[in-house]
Amino acid sequence: MTDTPTRAGFVALIGEPNAGKSTLTNRMVGAKVSIVTHKVQTTRTRIRGVAIEGAAQIVFVDTPGLFRPRRRLDRAMVAAAWGGAADADIVVLLVEAHRGLTEGTQAIIDALKDRVSAGRTVVLAINKIDRVKAEVLLALSEKLNAAYPFSQTFMISAEKGHGVDALRGWLAEELPEGPWLYPEDQIADLPMRMIAAEMTREKLTLRLHEELPYQITVETEHWQERKDGSVRIDQLIYVVRDGHKGIVLGNKGETIKSISQAARVEIAEFLGRPVHLFLQVKVRENWLEEAERYSEMGLEFRDGNT
Q1: Mean pLDDT (whole number) for 69-76
Q2: Binding residue per annotation — 257?
Q3: Which residue, 168, 204, 271, 285, is the most exposed by fewest CB within 10 angstroms?
C-alpha cells in the first residue's frame, strides 16, 4: 500500500429497470446496501455503495432505472439517475443479455451522447450472461458497440458473480489517483435511517400486489439507541387510500406482522445488533405531491416538475 498510489472515484450504474444494477452494487460492495426485487423501478434514489479493491476505493452509485416517466415521482427518479451518471468518473451501462438491444436501451444510448460529457469513460456490462448462448452474446456485444463507442465491454452475471471481479479490478485501475473519500469500514453513504426504511420497503414490495408498492413509501420517524446496545426503530408506511391500508395490514394484521418480522431480521443483520421495529400505516392521499416525502427519499422535488 505504501508504494501504490491510492485511487478513488464514483462509478454510476445505469440501465433499464431490472437490469441488475442493485444486485451488482451489492455484489461489488459485499453487503446488501440496495434493495433488490423482481419488480421494476424499486430503486428510487441514488444509493452509494463503497467497495475497496487494492489501493482503490470505488463508490458505486446505484441509480433508479431509466424509463419513460409519467408521474412526478417517475420524473424525479429519472433525473436522479442521469444526475448520477453526469457526476460520475466512470459510467457503466448494464444491459440484460436475454433482452438484447431494446428500445429502452437504445434510448439510453442516444441520451448518453447528450447527457454525459465528451471524454467521460463509459463501459458496457452485459448482465445475466447465463441466460443466453455464447454466439448470441457475441452478436449483442457487436451490435451495442456499433451503437456507442464503449471504452470496454464486460460479460457478467451480477447474481452469480461471473465476471464481476474482472470488472471491479478494471474500474479500480481506471479511477483517478487521490485520497479515499470515505472511512475504510464504511460501505454506504446513506444515513442508517434511510437504509432501514429501504429494507422495510423492499419487504413491502416483495409481499404486496403488483401496483401497490409504487404508491407506498416508508420513513423512519424515530431512531432510539438503547442502553442494552439494541436500537428501537419506529417507521411510518404511507399509502394513498384506505383500501391500500387494509392490504398492507392484512387479515388480523398478519401481513404487516410478517413484513415487520422480515425487515427486523434484515436490519438487525445489517447493524449487527438487536432491533426492535415498530411499523405504523398512515393514509396520505397526496404524498406523491409533497416535497417533504421526496426529501426523505433523497430525491429533488423540483426535478418532478419537468
Answers
A1: 75
A2: no
A3: 285
Domains and CATH numbers, the chain: 7-174 (3.40.50.300), 192-304 (3.30.300.20)
Is 64 annotated for ligand binding? yes
pLDDT higher at 266 or 294? 266
CA distances from 283 to 9, 74, 119, 254, 287 (A): 41, 21, 48, 19, 9
At 182-211, the pLDDT tens digits run 888 777 766 788 888 888 988 998 888 665
Reported as a single tens digit per residue, the pLDDT across 143-160 is 999 999 999 999 999 999
Ligand-binding annotation for 183, yes or no, is no
**Euclidean distance between CA atoms 192 and 201, whole angstroms:** 14
pLDDT band per the 50, 70, 90 thresholds, residue 43:
low
Alpha-carbon span 303 to 25, nearest angstrom: 25
**Residue 66 marked ligand-binding:** yes
Q: Is 149 annotated as a binding residue?
A: no
83 known member of a binding site: no
Classify 218 as helix, strand or coil. strand
- Asked whether residue 130 is marked as a ligand-binding residue, the answer is yes
Q: Is 129 annotated as a binding residue?
A: yes
